[in-house]
Records
---
Amino acid sequence: MDFEIANQTALERMTAARPILKAVQPAHEVVPGMKKNLLMHAGPPIEWDRMSGPMRGAIIGAVLYEGLAKDEAAAVELVEAGEVTFSPCHHHRSVGPMAGVTSWSMMVYEVENVTHGNTAFSNLNEGYGKVLRYGAYASEVLEKLRWINETVGPMLAEALAGSDGLDIRALVAEALHMGDEGHNRNKAGSLIFTRLLAPLIAKVAPDGKTESEVLEFLGANALSVLNPVMAACKAMADAAHGVEGSSMVTTMARNGTDFGIRVSGLGDRWFTAPVAQPDGLYFPGYTSEDAGGDIGDSTITETAGIGAFAMAAAPAIVTFIGGNPQDAINATLEMYEITLGEHPSFSIPFLDFRGSPVGIDIRKVVELGVVPRVNTGIAHKEAGVGQVGAGLVRPPMAIFEEALVAFAERYL
Amino acid sequence: MDFEIANQTALERMTAARPILKAVQPAHEVVPGMKKNLLMHAGPPIEWDRMSGPMRGAIIGAVLYEGLAKDEAAAVELVEAGEVTFSPCHHHRSVGPMAGVTSWSMMVYEVENVTHGNTAFSNLNEGYGKVLRYGAYASEVLEKLRWINETVGPMLAEALAGSDGLDIRALVAEALHMGDEGHNRNKAGSLIFTRLLAPLIAKVAPDGKTESEVLEFLGANALSVLNPVMAACKAMADAAHGVEGSSMVTTMARNGTDFGIRVSGLGDRWFTAPVAQPDGLYFPGYTSEDAGGDIGDSTITETAGIGAFAMAAAPAIVTFIGGNPQDAINATLEMYEITLGEHPSFSIPFLDFRGSPVGIDIRKVVELGVVPRVNTGIAHKEAGVGQVGAGLVRPPMAIFEEALVAFAERYL
């Protein structure tokens, strides 16, 4: 077995993938395996009794949103009675930021990797404040979610139907030249996204007032594009999964309790260990005491070579997550040590347009003792509160070691 | 006379100015001194016989646009008969990119410096390709100009009327954190501009098709925001003009033949000398042989501390104007040598959020032998062609020396 060739094959598939945002549709119409009582969630598999506060909050919110229960107590009762099934987004070609909870009637972005033909999905971004993905589930959270899924979603669906789709790889490439890193900082990407959608929306909007509200929501939310970018990264990573002999990471995801990875040449097995606490900057009134454990599928961005891996493109992010601009450059430089190549489409101006580090090799991670860097939002540890900050976190080294042992057992 | 206090006063006025885009209106309704047969142009005063090719082309185009003549020959005849009056935009509280030709019926942005109460104007940006500002005047150029002034302009006017105005200083500050320098690279700023306008336009657009076309035009043009940014810089610079004893530059402008500056403490006198040829990258099929002389009022951006002065914020610009990212950093560092301070609102992430160099001191320029750096578009030297590239240029040292002599005569 030539592992170098296997890894180059996996890397080439990941970087050659061209993800196009094609549609917005209800999850139950397009997400494989979706069921009425199924809730997809971020990270590796987990059951209710081990779920973190924010994950539980999002689960309760989704149960209420779907009308499966009428209040929090009834929702918890339903869950504890085993009437709700949980399944990782990743098991359904999907990804979701933070709690990532996505249910039957929610709208999802559909991204197609037109190079290899696979598709991936992600829910719609809710914006700031009290939102489901951070574990909030008050009535105004669900009301906003309903507006997003019943007003914004269908308008996006109709707008995209009038286009050839949006090239998310090209969008990310441009955004990296505009100070984004594609994970925690998606300001430029969200503006490009809004600018591409606005002329399409103008043609299909039912009335000026609703249109104005939707354009304001998309344009004012610097994370509007995060979810389609995540789906795009998922489509790129999935294209690289399943290459016999490849030690390249194709999934990194957290459910608030465990951090899990999967490896291209090791099938669908998760390697998991307890999550760390993120280190970062907190919103006024909050401290690290309030922080929940690392959570979300958004680490699919780092898996695909952006996010913390492209920090050198995004010096201004330090105002949001801490550190100084040199730290941002150093972060990217360090990630070259544990990756298989440089992304041909994602270049970093201040590194003389060098491609971003892409394709985490579990062998290099273990050998050098350097785990991937991850940028992240920070959720309050309790259900129902929401975001309290943003920062940096590292996955546990144990999961890379465990994966390498499995790799050795499988191939050596 | 304490020149340091005078300069600090001028600098403080320039940086405290807060320019708000308030309205879009026909030039004849708001621009002071506008007349039916008056054409405003970029740079210091100039008459027809000394005008460069692109300036002549834009003059012919504007004469045709206003219906003062029915073809090129008649337009030239009219001009040569002395029936058309020329006047610098700067004499009318206005600025215009490249040829800067602005006439009676064209729409202009109105920017108010709400700190000091002065206003400034700029025409609407025409986008790419064959455009009046680069000296093109074919029928399709005038047709597009008509659409811009008769469809885009009124829609922008109505949209802005439904708002409290757009804070252009805040917009520029944000764009500098997104890889813009505010002169040649206005990608992020134009996206922010489009994103702010879109919800306002949605409320007033007459129909979806027209709205869609306008939003596409604004969003696809990475220079959409250049003209309001220039008007904002003009409003900032004007606020600093006329401070007794100040050696700070408050105007830098080129008409394609001469480069002119004005100094805060030296009244309305222009100091001029022949322009240099820009040095840069050319579009396919063109070389430096095709380049016209340095032209445009857009150097008002460098005058106000952005543009080439903020190059370190915009490493990706080197793909457009030449050089490498380190050159971009060096450009900004050099400009600190000849400026009076650092802009409190315009910070540069990669320089640890240091404020951009602002307030050119003619004393420092002459003493150090360092003239300001300027980013610029490059027009074809002949009338009617258009843009052929983009690059860097320096004003002639002679005008700073001449200004310093005048300063000494006046104050010493």
---
Amino acid sequence: MRAGLLYSAGKDSTLAALLLEDFYDVVLVTASFGVVDPEPAREAAAALGFPHETVDVDPEVARDAVSRMYDDGYPRNGIQQVHEHALERVAAAEWTDDLDAVADGTRRDDRVPTVDRPLAQRVEDRFDVDYLAPLSGIGRGAIDDMVADTLVVETGPSAEVPKADYEVELRTLLREAHGDEAVAEVFPDHTQSRVRGRRDRHEA
Amino acid sequence: MRAGLLYSAGKDSTLAALLLEDFYDVVLVTASFGVVDPEPAREAAAALGFPHETVDVDPEVARDAVSRMYDDGYPRNGIQQVHEHALERVAAAEWTDDLDAVADGTRRDDRVPTVDRPLAQRVEDRFDVDYLAPLSGIGRGAIDDMVADTLVVETGPSAEVPKADYEVELRTLLREAHGDEAVAEVFPDHTQSRVRGRRDRHEA
């Protein structure tokens, strides 16, 4: 069986891939508006031993999401909108004809993005794939422990850790449209993680 | 890290164990009111290569649940009550001093039992363990596919497949208290599964 997993090089989507790899041939898929370089995700995928693909996301959806985040003053609804669109793009991509499932790294304790059961079933029915969210029944503490045991991770402030997720792209678009102040207001500083590879179990 | 997983020998709890085994030393734990024999679960655990334990569940909770199911005419609330109690008993058992996590096989599409985020966090805070529900972001179709690829399963009507879960015990208690008719009304016939071992990947 083959699963396409929405991939950012962050620890959540990487751990999701590790949970599924005994059951699926996992392809890591980075969604891009064409604003940032998907290279960090491609490098992480190679270090982990997974194939990697990119899908283009509709720039109109990105612009809408940026307006919404600016109006809201917080990123939640905008990110949710883009995540749903990105999932659908993975399910609908041409090379995904033989995908049995689409997957992502959404967690139990995430406030955003969330994929509730009706949305999951809508994606499943519309694209005739299963939707898998292997971290959605696992809390933050357990995820951190599982990551520490299995992955080599680089962490730092969002601005300094190169990642290839659409959050980085949305920040870039927000900066272009409304300046640095808007970015600081909508995305208060938080730590990002970028996976560099698997941890040798014997060194843990 | 060590996880105690509530175990019935059914395919859901077995698949949950397989999803976690790369990250945790998984102990399969069967909750029992002392009504049925935990032997089927012990046999399945041995065939799968996991250690197995039992925990006793308060018979008073079972009696309450049976009354509730009889009054309701359906099993949902009674089973939910017993599941929550069983999870807490696993977390609190004496031999579980060194458990990092408790886990179960609840699925996204289950109507019962469900462990929502507040309940999960209550268990985590009260017993200082993580709660893991690795199937809670995975739908029925994907679970069936993953099971078919990895496990040898015996299926049949509930009454004929020997299992060691508290649903079997609750049916027995209901029969003792209210007769066969009550069992037929509360638990309409449904198919049960019992895992016999791992499938050799090369034969799939």
